[in-house]
Design goal:
The chain is mainly alpha-helical. It is 41% helix and 0% strand. Helix 3 crosses helix 4. The two termini are 17 Å apart.
C-alpha cells in the first residue's frame, strides 16, 4: 500500500515548495500519486532516497525554496515547516526521505 498522510494540511505548502524548487506540480488537490511522483522527482534531484514520502530530509532540502534558513538540520526544517504560516503541528513522519 502506498504511503498517504493522515492529515494533509501541509499539501499546499509542499506543492508551493516543489514549484519554487522547479518541479512541475499542479496547483491544488489532495495528496495523490501525481504529488508523490513530484516528491520523488525532487528527492532524486537532491540525492535523497526517491520514496515519494515528504520526510524530514525532504523538508530540509525544500527549506531554501520555502524561504527557510539554509543549513537547517532535518528535524529543524520539520519544526520550521510546522510553524511556517502559523500551523501548529505537522504529522509525525518516520521516514528517511
Amino acid at each position: 500500500m502506498a504511503w498517504a498522510p493522515s492529515d494533509s494540511w501541509f499539501v499546499p505548502l509542499l506543492r508551493g515548495g516543489l514549484r519554487k524548487a522547479g518541479v512541475t506540480v499542479s496547483d491544488s488537490g489532495p495528496w495523490n500519486p501525481e504529488l508523490a511522483s513530484a516528491v520523488k522527482t525532487f528527492q532524486g534531484s537532491k540525492g535523497l532516497t526517491k520514496d515519494g514520502i515528504p520526510g524530514p530530509n525532504t523538508w530540509q532540502a525544500l527549506g531554501p525554496a520555502l524561504g527557510l534558513v539554509a543549513g537547517l538540520k532535518a528535524e529543524e526544517a520539520v519544526t520550521a515547516a510546522r510553524t511556517l504560516r502559523g500551523w501548529a503541528y505537522m504529522p509525525t513522519i518516520h521516514a528517511q526521505g
